[in-house]
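Case study.
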Amino acid sequence: MPMNRHDHHPISETEDSGRIDISRIRRRLEEMHGLNYWRSLDEIAGTPEFQDFLHREFPSAASELKDEVSRRHFLKIMGASLALTGMAACTRQPVEKIVPYVKQPPELVPGKPLHYATTALLDGFATGILVTTHEGRPTKIEGNPDHPINLGATTAFGQAMVLDLYDPDRAQTVLNAGKPASWEAFLSVMNLEMRAQREKKGAGLRILSGCVTSPVFHSQMRALLAAFPLAKWCQREPVGLDTVRLGAQIAFGRAVETLYNFEKADVILALDADFLSTHPASLRYARQFSTRRRPDTADGMNRLYVAEPSSSITGAMADHRLSLAAGGIEALASALAHRLGLPGDDGGAGEHGGWIAAVAADLKRAAGRSAVIAGKGQPASVHALVHWINGALGNAGKTVVYTNAFDSELVNGMESLKKLVADIESGSADMLVMLGGNPVYDAPVDIDFSKALEKLKMCVRLGVDENETSRFCHWHIPAAHELESWGDARAFDGTVSITQPLIEPLYGGKTPLELIDALLRQPTRNSYTIVRDYWSAQNLPDFEKTWRKALSDGFIAGTAFETIAVTSAEPARTSNIRPGGGLELVFRPDPSVWDGRFVNNAWLQELPRPFTKLTWDNAALISPALAQREQLQNGDVVELEFRGRTLRIPVWILPGQAENSVTLHLGYGRQKTGRVGTGTGFNAYALRTSDALWFGSGLQIRKTGETYPFSTTQRHFNVEGRDIIREGTWQEFQSDPHFMSARTEPEPGRDDTLYSPDEFKYTGYKWGMSIDLNTCIGCNTCAIACQAENNIPTVGKDQVARGREMHWIRVDAYYRGGLDDPEISHQPVPCMHCENAPCEVVCPVGATVHDDEGLNMQVYNRCIGTRYCSNNCPYKVRRFNFLEFNAGMTSVQKMVKNPDVTVRSRGVMEKCTYCTQRINAARITAEKEDRKIRDGELVTACQAACPAEAIVFGDLNDPASRVSKLRAQPLSYGMLGELNTRPRTSYLGKLRNPNPEMKS
Amino acid sequence: MAQIFNQSANTISRVGILCALLALSGTGWIAAEVFWSPYTTMVGVPREQPVPFSHKHHVDGLGIDCRYCHVSAETSRFAGVPPTDTCMTCHSQLWKQAAMLEPVRQSLATGKAIRWNRVNDLPDFVYFDHSIHVNKGIGCVSCHGQVDQMPLTWKQNTLYMKWCLDCHRAPEKEIRPRDEVFDMKWRKPADQEKAGRELLTAYHVQTSRLTNCSVCHR
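After joint prediction, the assembly is written out as follows.
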């Protein structure tokens, strides 16, 4: 299907102004001797656009509507609206209704939120979540602190799932051939089909699902396959763990799962493995990893080596990062094995020989306390090699443990999908039941899935939304959202987690359990009965009590897989593991829309991607060297030709990208999705073939001469090269803990101010926040948690381009060093809540004022929108509602809003409040009990979500509070403290732990 | 050159300016009057309800405690309006046929809630919490007035920000012992301000921060 699916994009020719010259940038960087930080190529090149962003608070014309409105017409409208505003103030307050319950649920107290433990799923793997509901309306997701896989943290996806629940584009009715029908009508048709299948023992029946870890579902499938022995079940994820499982199968001769314990690892080597953000256990891994990044950790700081083709969250945390083509990883692993004294040849380490030798020596020194991990984007042979290396280093059973697999037989999604399509093509399969998924869009492009679907006699899809696949299905059944469902699933460590509904299905959706149950028996059971019946038959001790505890805890304690002892055999080596010459194409799931399933989620779409800071789009990520060679600029549209197929897509130059690798993020360019996702990005699946699922060589790149406008936040809210991020090495810290503050400008004395330093005494609480740059991995979860908690609107791609994005906390990325292999650091920036706040003194209407606990408050009903405060803020953390961003929400969409936070309207400034609603709630609880708020009782939304526990909030007047102790650490500094703003948000300077034997 | 204006122009302009000033201040005065009048504030205006519920009858006549219906006043920001069930605890036995109670019976039969008209309505950017006021010794009467004397409920105070701040600036004028919060008959002692200050200390009320914006606005 070689075709270009993207003719609808507004690609236009533009003149050559503001082009950046890579060679000039290189010269400038050399002049800076790698000491200075930079955030974007524009910044070093000093392009006019960048200057424009720098010198204006908001980009030019940000304050104007771009519509063609004449001045006269504008004045007329203004006059009318002024008169109306005046009149509006004269009307009386409209009468509101109070609508009490008829029968009030006993557990519900109106005005008090309830919290339930349930489970969020990604690719079938569970994480434990706690959901806040207000009068039966789920509004906020937090991690479940007791759950062993995420320990209280969430991913950005977990935070955003509540927005999907209220998505107005969800499937709302049963559809038969595109026309509304009923569940009962579906059942009667399906019964006839199933009777026919029963006669031929299910020979024509196929079930297609994503990866499933649910014990209940597995038992249902066992029953189904027993009743229909010739039926088949295909489990497949577009970005699943096929290679990981196949690698373990090769290494151990049986299906096992691999679980790491990074808390025990002194030296870690990640081979194209983004274990901190895209692994099913990454929340736990991030927590374990971060405990060993704090300079005061008892076992000493760990050291992380990463080799990867494209910057990842993990790569940015590396002490030594090697930009290496994905196809070169296997040779690197092979050379490493050789260096470690294992049999086999050198594998051709070539130019990286020195790097490998040093890593090998470090790993060897830390034998039994080291860990090597490969990513799912690497072939099974690399995984097998890594198992072997870990075995040889004595890490197995210590930093790396093995458990029984989720499925007793090896699940290979790609192979079973191929088999499924072949069966349909041959006519042996005629009935397909799809549980979610979107194979028409995301199957490898050499498998024509839509053609296969057209051959089926009966095709059913259960899905929360209608997508590309739906229109090929005879029946489309609306699925219940996870927050509307009963069910269960296993976390990556095996822990069984229960899913319980927070709300009745909004559109009468069905769960996969109910659909499979309907295939087996009728009358159908509801999913609550299915789940409860299964678990009550499992011989749990004192079932009723265990069940109630499981619902309350969110998981069944003690159900994690037991570790097993397995020994890896020497893997057979591929004979030719040298990467092919030329360019390489790499596929990765998008950090925001994943495999495409979150494309209709505006929170995720607008979340700036970790390194590019792109929003609402994907791009072909290319290295500065390739850009120089091909004369490419950010936004230049290229034609990629890969194995006979082409794709037109704009490029983005990513410092640190491997020279000859081009990375495409999957999940964009959807043709049939909701109003948010339609028309965004470019479809990378159009080049993804089954023989190059993750990467492949032989890519051709051609410049088309067209350009494409991106919306990136990279240049927004810049702070002009001042001393805002501080870094050093652990070695420096050990010789002098105060080395960092010694080389920076000291903070002025408290009284060195023209304003009264004693206006506030801060005798009660004194709120403050500490952000640890050592542990922050830059995953963006804080930004989306804040968005969910504080009713922050999304603004759309066009508005982001004008610098109007509304996030209260942003995560800045800083580069240091050369273009090809820079060090990357992240810095989350919320409001600093300065004690001498520059914003307060310039507000003409007293809309931004101080309170006597040190909060810098924004009073929305006073604000008249002068934006002086934002102009005077040195941290650029204030956000202005240029337009009525909350207008036009349907009543269902409004249900996501937090009732404890004002929904701001146009013309009002806003910013981080330190979650003042949470402070108030905690204060009221404490005062009713005549006590003080306890340390740790009050957490901000960003703090609660952070997987690395990098954000700590609390009372600075309590010397025993965690935030006071962090602030007393020698690495603690206030951003731009030399301005005497006395920020309440402070940072802990970042330390890296480089190998002294390696030069950078 | 002849004078453009006649001498009388002086008088006309003086009177004119005076009239303009008078008109301006008159408009202002009228606006202020309207703003503070019951027409706008609805203070003292009994509110129509789907069922003419009488607090006077239930509280003063029958002696039912506030918390029998407003169950969450001590625990939640919202004091709670009783579900139909609560009405029916008595009215399934008493006045079973009363025409006045037909909407209540209908509500129970159909499962559709009674839609009451809100009497005390704060703007949406104000985050008032009943529980903290009740727990720190602010009586129901302080804001709601003598509800036990209202046949149909009306608003006793403007609920304007000025009115809130009057008390937040000097809570000693209104605070009472916790035990007396729900007592409709409690009267301020002669030495209220002194007793009030003692109660503020006893209940650990942080008076210094009661006028911070963030106390009520988020």
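Observations recorded in class. Chain B touches chain A through 49 residues (CB under 8 Å). Chain B has a mean pLDDT of 93. We will return to this complex in the next lecture.
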